[in-house]
Amino acid sequence: MKDLPPECKDNLKKQIEAKCEGHVFQPELIGFTGCQLKCGNENDYIFMRMKSSQTIFLKDGTPCGHNKVCIGGRCVETCQMTFV
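Structure for Putative ixostatin, as requested:
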């Protein structure tokens, strides 16, 4: 994400936060790597600790670095994309 222009970076951050906050059971962003984000929640009850999470892939074609885009949850060189 460090190679993205500032306006793209800000927009991506807002969308990621909104995606997690909009989920009832996994409302917090707990991790972000390349083309995957993980939303989750952790609760401590008297006798048990509950954790839940979900992994969300960014859409194919989302910029993820210099000359790189997300494809199938991975950050790949732009020329590795399937064009046809």
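The first helix runs from residue 6 to 21.
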